[in-house]
Amino acid sequence: MSVPASALLRTSGYLVADARGRLVGRVECPMYGTEPDLPDALSVRKGFFARRRHVVPASAIDQIDGTSGVIGLLVERESLRSFL
Question: Is residue 84 included in any domain, yes or no?
Fold first, then answer.
């Protein structure tokens, strides 16, 4: 399931869980790449003082639950790319 890019704009602060239900981190902000006004990925930070972040592409998102503030992924957290 692919989520619309506009849904990524409202996800700052949501928790992200991988396909096995393990916590990946918290959404820091949407990331823009292909188009300047529509996000195509999320920046996810593991802890409060963590320096490394993960890139979660929109194609890896299974569902966004707005009531509980959790994003479910189709992939495991080991397959996500990290950056500084």
Answer: no
